[in-house]
Amino acid sequence: MNLLDKFHNWRRKLRWNKQYRKGRWDNLRNPIEAERYQTIINFIKSYGKAQPSILDLGAGEGVLNEYITPEVFSYFLGMDFSAVSIQKAKTKNFPKAEFVTADIHNYTPKQKFDVIIFNEAFYYVHESEKQNVLDRMLAHLTDDGVLIVSIYREGIGCWEYFDKLKQLDFTTVKTDEEKTYWKIGAYKLQMLNARF
Questions:
Q1: In this structure, is residue 196 part of a structural domain?
Q2: CA–CA separation, 20 and 26 (whole Å)
Q3: Is residue 194 part of a domain?
């Protein structure tokens, strides 16, 4: 990213922290979001190994943890850009879970994970960094690991980055509101095309 892009990224962080302080993202707990979270959990159960380690990129206040039971996983790491959201997540003391504040543009996990989720996060990655971020996360996915991507509406400029991966599942979660829907995909590395 150039200097101007870094400045805009910094301003976005300030805006998100302010929004989390004011409760702007409390709507993630609305029933309209429940099927999206349940689809992510179903993909984890269907395509992940038993009790996987999970990295949730875009974890916010840990809303996914409010839906998933701790018996499903062995370890859960939630990462978000907003320090305010991560602090809120930490106060909930979710079992087998930790939370870290980091910028997805330069975040490098300290271990490999069986499941990595781009939880409404990939479209916030700067266009010039999308492939770098994806490659870095795939390098931290276990050999038989699963990548799950949830994107609001169409996700223009995002889905083509996953074309080289083996698609395990893909669905659109619709709601009663025509313009409120999510596309969710589950992927594995294709060994012939894998660069890791």
A1: no
A2: 8
A3: no
**Is 110 part of any domain?**
yes
Q: Which domain holds residue 51?
A: 3-188
Q: Specify if 162 maps to a domain.
A: yes
**pLDDT of 130-180, one tens digit each?**
999 999 999 999 999 999 999 998 888 899 999 999 999 999 999 888 888
For position 25, what pLDDT does the model report? 60
Number of structural domains (the chain) is 1
> What CATH number should be reported for the domain holding residue 78?
3.40.50.150
Q: Is 14 exposed, middle or buried (0-12, 13-18, 19+ CB in 10 A)?
A: exposed
Choose among 117, 114, 146: nearest CA to 36: 117
Q: What is the pLDDT of residues 69-103, one digit of tens each?
A: 999 999 999 999 899 999 999 999 999 999 999 99
pTM of the model: 0.85
